[in-house]
Structures are given as C-alpha cells and as structure tokens.
Fold MD-2-related lipid-recognition domain-containing protein.
Amino acid sequence: MLKLALAVVLLCFITSPALAFWTTCPEFPGARGPDRVDTPMCDSERCFAVRGEYFIANITLSSPDVHHELLSECIAFIAGIGIPLPMEPPHDNGCNAIFRNGVQQSCPTTPNNQYVWVVEQRIIEGIPAFQNTRVQYRIRDRGQLVGCVQFWATVV
Ligand SMILES: *[C@@H]1O[C@H](CO)[C@@H](O)[C@H](O)[C@H]1NC(C)=O
C-alpha cells in the first residue's frame, strides 16, 4: 500500500505542470493555460532562442468555449517593463495553424476539442537581447484575453 501511494505521488510529481517550464499568468486568473507544450527550445527552467531564427513549439490546447480568433502577443518584462515582441502574420493567429490528428483545422473552434497549435514564429532581429527574463505569451479572442502562459527566456 505504501509502495502504491509512493508510486502515485511520484507519478503526480513527474507529470505535474508545476515541473513544466511554463505556468499560467497569476495576474490573469481567467486566462487558461494549454494542456501541454512540446518544444525543443526550453528545458524545465527556461527557453532559449536566437534573434532572426524560429521559435518552434507544439501547443496542445482545449477550451470549453468557441473561439473565433487566437491572436497571440508576446511580452518580455525587461527590467520590469513589458516590451511587446512583434509577431509576424500568419503565425500571430493560432487559427491559421491548429491541427487535429494531423489534419489542419480552422476557426471557430469546437468546444472541448483538443487541438495542436503548431507554432513557427520567427524572432525578429529588431528586438533587444535579454537574459533570464519573464515572458508572457497571451492569447486574445476578439479583444478578450482567453489564454496566457509565462516562462523565463533568454534571447541572444
Ligand atoms: C509537432 O508535431 C508535428 C506533427 O506531429 C511533429 O512532426 C513535430 O516534430 C512536432 N514538433 C515539436 C516541436 O514537438
């Protein structure tokens, strides 16, 4: 019994989102986080990216709501000041890059369906480099903030 309890605790610990590199955004409790994020660009502590190159990630997400757009904005808090990192279309709108079972979908989304958002976002050269900086990735649907994750990142 003790072994089983230990195994369950270990399993919860290993799969806990607390060990992921991202969290939801504390100042936006109504904004959802994704189900999971797969990216070779982050370890459990932070993400690392190079200006002029691509940030790639597969974001698995689901929502109880219908979404008509999934406009993303990325903000780096450099010395405490939020600096928006410009996103280039079409990848600034998740509706242009969501998949189910490998088949591309479009918006509006179907509630409670799980989608994989394939992110291929070029990091433009014009932004400042930063180290171990808090970054928020926010998702808006017609102006309303519906999703937000934050993580630590170094961009060179
Ligand atoms: C994202 O998913 C696609 C399709 O399943 C796969 O080919 C690709 O390797 C994945 N990329 C990452 C970063 O997980």
